[in-house]
Write a structure and sequence with these properties.
Blueprint (H helix, E strand, L loop, with lengths): L1 H22 L3 H4 L5 E7 L8 H8 L2 H4 L2 E7 L3 H9 L5 E4 L1 H9 L4 E5 L8 E4 L13 E4 L5 H12 L8 E4 L3 H9 L5 E4 L1 H10 L3 E5 H4 L7 E5 H5 L1 H23 L1 H11 L5 H13 L11 H13 L9 H4 L3 H10 L3
Parallel strand pairs: 1-2, 1-3, 6-7, 6-8
Antiparallel strand pairs: 3-10, 4-10, 5-8, 5-9
Helix pairs in contact: 3-12, 9-14, 12-13, 12-17, 13-14
Amino acid sequence: MKDSISRRNVLKAASALTLTALATGNWQRAFAADRDTLKVVFPTTETTYQLPYLVAKDTGWFDEHGLDVEELFVNGDAVAMRSVLSKAADVTLVGPPTVFQAYANGAKLKYIGSTQPRVDYQILGSPGIGSVQDLSNRSFASAAPSDMTTEVPRLVIQKHGGDGNKVRFLQVGGHSARLQALEAGKVDGTMVNTLTSVIGQRGGKVKVLSKVAEEFPDMGYVLYTGLSDVLDDPARARALTTFMQGNIYGARLVQNDPDTAARILAKRVPDLSADILSQVIKELNSNNVWGLDGGLDESMISFTADILLKWQMIPAAVTPDAIVDRRFVDEALAALKPA
């Protein structure tokens, strides 16, 4: 008799919990077994290149479509990639050099899409610099020797008839530090992302000399990447299809409604106003940087891998056939239709 009463009490308690979840609108949580989960690691704090993801996350799109995304923000591409290689995270969003280097060294990685497949770097100069060509024989703030913040400006300067080998590159640090060095007159030029460039332009001490997306449209920026065996797991595969669908939804919202996207990012980055962010996003939109169809671009892989190999930033060639996995983007686009 006591056992029968106990069972009835357990059933009543379970029913009460379910009814509470339904009454409070959390009905999906009442059936958590039917939901998918995904762990995503980002190499920086919240910023513009993550916007398609942030839009889907913060508007509740993922939640409404049965996907729980656990996000982690770390310091640097190398740390983020180690999280994926150790399987502490399912996927990461990092730059091509990190992905291609790990792949060339034997990691069984696949590139599955991107929030922002195209670079948004801008080359800035002090007011006295007339053109990119004029940066020859001048000082230039970069992040590190032989990385993209050194080699891309060198390539752009040479494209415009200057001598990139005569530029005096000084290692300064991150985007903000490089801008500050330029504003203080310690260097004559630098390369930063669009967000930092807009902030600098508002200060009136710098000007834009070149936009890298216009110079080299096929140069890659960030790639969603995961280990092949993780991507092949049926539960992860299902989650990743929903995840990429949400990213495509987010990218299209950013392109079509930059003011709403700016407000979403401003909540994550309260030290930047929605006004500044709206200006930044509109400039990014004009350069067509977003992954409106999932961000899978074979020509970007070929171009970027070739120049990284030339600069000896990766140990071996990487081809699209070897590293691209189209499954999740193709399935997402089947539901959303191409932009």
